[in-house]
Prior knowledge:
By secondary structure, the protein is mainly α. It is built from 21 helices and no strands. The protein has helices at 6-29, 36-57, 60-77, 79-82, 86-97, 100-113, 118-150, 174-181, 186-192, 195-211, 214-239, 242-257, 261-290, 295-312, 315-329, 333-346, 349-365, 372-385, 395-406, 412-418, 421-447. The longest helix is centred in the N-terminal third of the chain and has 33 residues, at 118-150. It is globular, with a radius of gyration of 23 Å.
Amino acid sequence: MPELNKGRLSLLYLSIVAAYGILMLAQENNWLGLGTPILIPLRVFVLLIFGYLVVKKKSLTAWILYSMFIGTEIGYDAPDFAVHLQVLSKIFLKLIKTIIAPLLFSTLVVGIAGHASLKQVGRMGLKSLIYFEVVTTIALFIGLFAINISQAGVGIDLPPPPPGETLVGQKQTAEEVILHIFPENVAKSIADGQVLQIVVFSILFAIGLALVNEAKRKPMLDFTESLAEVMFKFTRVVMYFAPIGVGAAIAYTVSHMGIGILMNLFQLLSTLYLALIFFLLFVLLPVALIAKVPLKKFINAIVEPVSIAFATTSSEAALPKAMENMEKLGVPRKIVAFVLPTGYSFNLDGTTLYLSLASVFVAQAAGINMSWGEQIVMVLTLMVTSKGVAGVPRASLVILLGTAASFGLPVAPIFIILGIDELMDMARTSVNVIGNCLATVVIAKWEGEYVEPVDGI
């Protein structure tokens, strides 16, 4: 098979997905009187072509996308068998959960203590934190409004919960919510998967570490940097199981709820993409115009790192190229070296928007009617928990699971989201990279140290 460029390959993938969808709808709605003996072989043939392209591409992203369609086919044609596949998706979620505490602890400690104090980072540190907080807060509220408008989770008929798992939301008083933020035993917080408590402990630990002298700080800082790197690799290893976990999740979901559930998933996916586009056009673009960022050169500089982020669903994978291109764009190395890595913990715009949207979707799918006050409290919690999201695939899934546990929401709808999380992660990770690249230019402009390049990018 001749090599295809990315554009043609994407068009071919889109054509295959469309063909499979049409064949599935034809059987579901009995179009033209075509029956199962005709349509199943046709769908299998389309999936075989898709599988051949995936094998040729040798991409984990492609395998995960392919597994979604395999899972759909198994769930639709062999529902009795698909029910037993849930254990595979549960294994994947358990592996993801093991990442939460060491990943949050190491990235937050390195992000805070690694820069010691505002005496070292000066005005740049304060300006960066202010910028990060304002932009990510706007992103959270855009996600909140988007899901309340689309109501993508309303009307989903969830399957009965597995034994021992409750689907009932537990309301908490304001005092209980505030008290719940602070850990009394960090080991217990880790065991219970209390994300916010782990974040609070990590922040306090990082502040304490920053206050000790250099000789005593360095060994611990070296350890946390090493731990962060190990957890990045650990996450990458776990992600090799993602195609099996995602395919099993889709198969189980379709077998229990039918093909109609995919319409809810499409509605959720559309809600996220439209909300992210709105954020780019009405938040980041005005920021760029106000800061007088050279848009054409900026777009040329971010095309490659954003493409890497989209294809790998990893902000971390795009970091080296993003740093290189921001320097070429005219941002001093000292600003690039501080703002981009710090932004990976404190300025993930796409992920924070997704988290607020997905959390309310979980409540809607479970039939839990959260008031605006309760949703805002959850968003305020996400403002803190989202700061610890690392730039690796599916890290936001860890935060979503922790948020669900903290607010007494069920995990069953998260299994539904898992089926399309790869497609959602592509978009939110791309926006993360765009937001952080823009932040470096804005801070450089704010500091008066930006030098527009003479040559093009």
